[in-house]
C-alpha cells in the first residue's frame, strides 16, 4: 500500500455527466464546496457516461488521464462530485496513488470544520463514524486474515474486527449523549407549546443568506459568511411581532442536493426544530440562476424529514443583486402573504417581513373584548395567567372591561371550560 495522505490542500476535481437528471451534480457547486473546505482546485475533469463503472466509477482511460494529471500537478487528493462505494475509492486510490474523496466525504469534512457547539461536534462525529465504518478495510489490508499455526496464533480478533467493535461502542456512546440533548430540546419545545409561543424556522439552500437574515432580525451575532454550510449549530432567539407577541426564531443548517443520509440521521435533533415549527421561512437566493432547482431540493429534504406539510413563507433574498427589484409582499387570492422580497445584507424590506409574519400568525390569534362582572375574578385570573390581557378598565358599576389577544387554540379551551357564559361576556369594541 502507498502512504496515505492525511489531508489534501491541492486537488483535482472530477465530475461525471449522466443522462439521468437525478444523478447529475453541479460543477459550480463542487467548486464552492471545495473552496469552503479550504482546498485549492488545480483542475476540473469532466466526462460523460451512461452509467457508473462498477470498479472505477469512471472509465479506465479517463482514470489513467486523471492519474497523469495528479502526477503532473503533484496533487494531494482527487475529489469526486459523486458518492463512491468503498471498493471504488480503494481501486481509484491504487490508480491515482493519492487519496480519493467523494462528495459525501467532502461535505462531512466541511461539517467537521464548521461545528462549534458540543452537540454539533457530536453530530458530525456520528456521521463520520457511520461513513468510515464501511471503509475501515482500506487501512488494514495487511490484517485482513487471522494467522494460524504455532507461534502465530492471535488473540482471536483481527485489528479490523477490533476497530469495528470500538467504532460500534463509540457510536453507541454518541447516540446516548445525543438522545439526552434531544430530550432537553423536547422539554424546551413543550414549554413553548404550553405557553403557545409560535416557533419560526429559517430553512433554505446553503448560502442563501439565512444567518445574515437571522442576525438582521434578532440583532444576534451568529457566524455568517459567503460560503457553504457556514451554519451548523441551531440558534434560537426571541422576537416580538405586532399583534402576535413573542415568537421564537430558529436558524438551522442549510440544505444541499443529495444531502448524505448519514448527515440527515445525525442532525435529527437539529432538524426537529424545523419539523415542529409553526411556520417555515424558506429563504431563497433570488439572484442565483439555479434558484428554482435549489427550491425543489429544499422541498425534497423537507419531505424527507417529514416537514413538507408545515406552512411556508417564501423569503426572496438578495434583491440588492438584481436590477430594478423593489421590496414587496406577494399575497394570494385570500389575502395571505406568500412571498417577501428583501435584502438581508442591506436591510431593505426587512420591515415588510415583520409585517408579513404578523399577518400570517395573527390569523391564528383571537382578539376579544370581555365585560366581566365583579364575581368573575377567577376567570380574570386565568386570563392574566395566559398572559393575553392587552388592557383592562374598571367601570363605574364594578364590571371589568378586559381586552384579550390569545391563540385561537387557547380561546377554544376556555370556551370548553366556561361554555356559553364566556360567550355572553363578549362585547363589541366601541
Automatic annotation (TrEMBL):
Instruction: Report the domain of life of the source organism.
Output: Bacteria
Binding of GTP occurs at: 204-211, 229-233, 251-254, 317-320, 343-345
For binding Mg(2+), which residues are annotated in this chain's numbering? 211, 231
As for subcellular location, the record says: Cytoplasm
Query: Which keywords accompany this UniProt record?
Result: Cytoplasm, GTP-binding, Magnesium, Metal-binding, Nucleotide-binding
Q: Identify the cofactor(s).
A: Mg(2+)
GO cellular component: a single term: cytoplasm
Q: Does the keyword Chloroplast apply?
A: no
InterPro entries named in the record: EFG_III/V (IPR035647), G_HFLX_dom (IPR030394), GTP-bd (IPR006073), GTP-bd_M (IPR032305), GTPase_HflX (IPR016496), GTPase_HflX_N (IPR025121), GTPase_HflX_N_sf (IPR042108), HflX_C (IPR045498)
- Please give the Gene Ontology molecular function terms for this protein: GTP binding; GTPase activity; guanosine tetraphosphate binding; metal ion binding; ribosome binding
**Residue limits of the Hflx-type G domain?**
198-365
Q: Which HAMAP family match?
A: GTPase_HflX (MF_00900)
Family (UniProt): Belongs to the TRAFAC class OBG-HflX-like GTPase superfamily. HflX GTPase family.
Could you give the subunit structure recorded for this chain? Answer: Monomer. Associates with the 50S ribosomal subunit.
Function, as annotated, reads: GTPase that associates with the 50S ribosomal subunit and may have a role during protein synthesis or ribosome biogenesis.
Q: What is this protein called?
A: GTPase HflX
Amino acid at each position: 500500500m502507498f502512504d496515505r495522505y492525511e489531508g489534501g490542500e491541492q486537488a483535482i476535481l472530477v465530475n461525471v455527466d449522466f443522462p439521468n437528471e437525478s444523478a447529475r451534480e453541479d460543477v459550480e457547486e463542487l467548486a464552492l464546496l471545495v473552496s469552503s473546505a479550504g482546498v485549492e482546485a488545480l483542475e476540473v475533469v469532466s466526462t460523460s457516461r451512461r452509467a457508473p463503472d462498477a470498479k472505477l466509477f469512471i472509465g479506465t482511460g479517463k482514470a489513467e488521464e486523471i492519474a497523469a494529471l495528479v502526477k503532473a500537478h503533484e496533487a494531494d487528493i482527487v475529489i469526486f462530485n459523486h458518492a463512491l462505494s468503498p471498493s471504488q475509492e480503494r481501486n481509484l486510490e491504487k490508480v491515482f496513488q493519492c487519496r480519493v474523496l467523494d462528495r459525501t466525504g467532502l461535505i462531512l469534512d466541511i461539517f467537521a470544520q464548521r461545528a462549534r457547539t458540543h452537540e454539533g461536534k457530536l453530530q458530525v462525529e456520528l456521521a463520520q463514524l457511520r461513513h468510515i465504518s464501511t471503509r475501515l478495510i482500506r487501512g488494514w489490508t495487511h490484517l485482513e486474515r487471522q494467522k494460524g499455526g504455532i507461534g502465530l496464533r492471535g488473540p482471536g480478533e483481527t485489528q479490523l474486527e477490533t476497530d469495528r467493535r470500538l467504532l460500534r461502542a463509540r457510536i453507541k456512546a454518541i447516540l446516548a449523549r445525543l438522545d439526552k440533548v434531544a430530550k432537553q430540546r423536547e422539554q424546551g419545545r413543550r414549554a413553548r407549546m404550553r405557553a403557545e409561543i409560535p416557533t419560526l424556522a429559517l430553512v433554505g439552500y446553503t448560502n442563501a443568506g439565512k444567518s445574515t437574515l437571522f442576525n438582521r432580525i434578532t440583532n444576534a451575532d451568529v457566524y455568517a459568511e459567503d460560503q457553504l454550510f457556514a451554519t451548523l449549530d441551531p440558534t434560537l432567539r426571541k422576537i416580538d411581532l405586532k399583534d402576535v407577541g413573542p415568537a421564537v426564531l430558529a436558524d438551522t443548517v442549510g440544505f444541499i442536493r443529495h444531502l448524505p443520509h448519514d448527515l440527515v440521521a445525525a442532525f435529527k435533533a437539529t432538524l426537529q426544530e424545523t419539523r415542529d415549527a409553526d411556520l417555515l421561512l424558506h429563504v431563497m437566493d433570488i439572484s442565483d440562476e439555479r434558484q428554482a432547482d435549489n427550491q425543489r431540493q429544499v422541498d425534497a429534504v423537507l419531505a424527507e424529514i417529514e416537514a413538507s406539510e408545515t406552512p411556508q413563507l417564501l423569503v426572496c433574498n438578495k434583491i440588492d443583486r438584481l436590477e430594478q427589484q423593489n421590496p414587496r409582499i406577494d399575497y394570494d387570492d385570500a389575502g395571505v402573504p406568500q412571498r417577501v422580497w428583501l435584502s438581508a445584507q442591506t436591510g431593505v424590506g426587512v420591515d415588510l417581513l415583520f409585517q408579513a409574519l404578523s399577518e400570517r400568525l395573527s390569523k391564528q390569534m383571537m382578539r376579544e373584548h370581555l365585560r366581566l362582572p365583579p364575581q368573575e375574578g377567577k376567570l380574570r385570573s386565568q386570563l392574566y395567567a395566559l398572559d393575553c390581557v392587552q388592557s383592562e378598565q374598571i367601570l363605574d358599576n364594578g364590571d371589568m372591561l378586559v381586552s384579550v389577544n390569545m391563540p385561537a387554540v387557547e380561546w377554544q379551551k376556555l370556551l370548553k371550560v366556561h361554555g356559553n357564559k364566556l360567550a355572553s361576556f363578549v362585547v363589541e369594541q366601541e
